[in-house]
Amino acid sequence: MNPTIYIGVPSKRDKITTRLRSLLRNFVNLGQRLDELRLLHGCTLAELQRSRGSHRLQDYELRVFSQWGEDGILQRLTSLIEIPNKTFIEFGVEDFTEANCRFLMMKDNWSGFVIDGSERSMRRLRAAYDNWRYDLSAACAFITRENINELLALSGFDHDLGVLSVDIDGVDYHVLQAITGYRPRILIVEYNAVFGGERAITVPYQADFFRTAAHHSNLYFGASLAAFRQLCGRMGYTFVGSTSAGVNAFFVRNDVVTPAVAALATTAGYTPSKVRESKGPDGRPTLLSGAARLGQIRGLPVINVLTGETETL
């Protein structure tokens, strides 16, 4: 005698769960389709840029996955420089959905290593729909000048990197100064344009420096472009330009500078920023611009990197 099989009616909870799973799959698929469209659009524009011939780096800006046009700038620089090791290290990336080197990875199949201090961001990165497609590894760590070389060694990359991108919104100058084992051909650093274009200054070193905790305005962090130019010059790099938003600066290692790169360097200078990211004591955006931003942090201590003396803003 055959057993009787009872088929239960799905509960309301089961129906909701099934619906949510379906929505999640559709959302992931939508994100994948959008990324594919952005990649296709970026590849088309990058190809069109090849014939531009401008000596201003900002003229090559292109936003695909970067925040301020770094995708196009990197396409230009990597077309002018011989780079045998298609590798990048980028830190301060959150979950890497918006990053300087993501387009290099997806378009040109570069290998990468990224670092961020947020475990939540690293979990999202590892769970990304396309994580299996690329040679990308990640580490979750709060970066200091004491641990930076140990962290970089986790990449397993040769010291002759293609690109190193530094963006931790804090003691970036001190961390970059501490790197000894790697010599990227292209170096990207975020500078604090609010510090102005003349003074070579940085915030003092503090291993647990946190931008918002350092000052409620969110404007007291990092180093000036002049400070980075001085440091990178000592490290053997040529400044070739910055983004038009006045956020990131680009340097090329002296031994791989070509005439075309040298032409870029002759037009490179300080770019002020119009970015309005200030906050009030309550944590809400205040959207200050111009000199009002510097007024918020006037009197705070900075280190003059030329003299080593402590000064004030």
Please tell me about this protein's structure.
- The protein is of the alpha/beta class.
- Helices cover 34% and strands 15% of the residues.
- The chain is built from ten helices and ten strands.
- The chain has helices at residues 12-49, 70-80, 102-108, 119-126, 148-153, 172-178, 211-214, 225-235, 259-266, 291-297, and strands at 87-91, 111-116, 136-140, 163-166, 186-190, 201-202, 237-242, 248-253, 301-304, 310-312.
- A seven-stranded mixed beta sheet has the order 3-2-1-4-5-8-7, with helices on both faces. A three-stranded antiparallel beta sheet has the order 6-9-10, with no helix packed on it.
- A hairpin with a 5-residue loop joins strand 7 and strand 8.
- The longest helix has 38 residues, at 12-49.
- The chain is globular.
- The mean pLDDT is 91.
Give the helices and strands, then pairings.
Blueprint: H1 12-49, H2 70-80, E1 87-91, H3 102-108, E2 111-116, H4 119-126, E3 136-140, H5 148-153, E4 163-166, H6 172-178, E5 186-190, E6 201-202, H7 211-214, H8 225-235, E7 237-242, E8 248-253, H9 259-266, H10 291-297, E9 301-304, E10 310-312
Parallel strand pairs: 1-2, 1-4, 2-3, 4-5
Antiparallel strand pairs: 5-8, 6-9, 7-8, 9-10
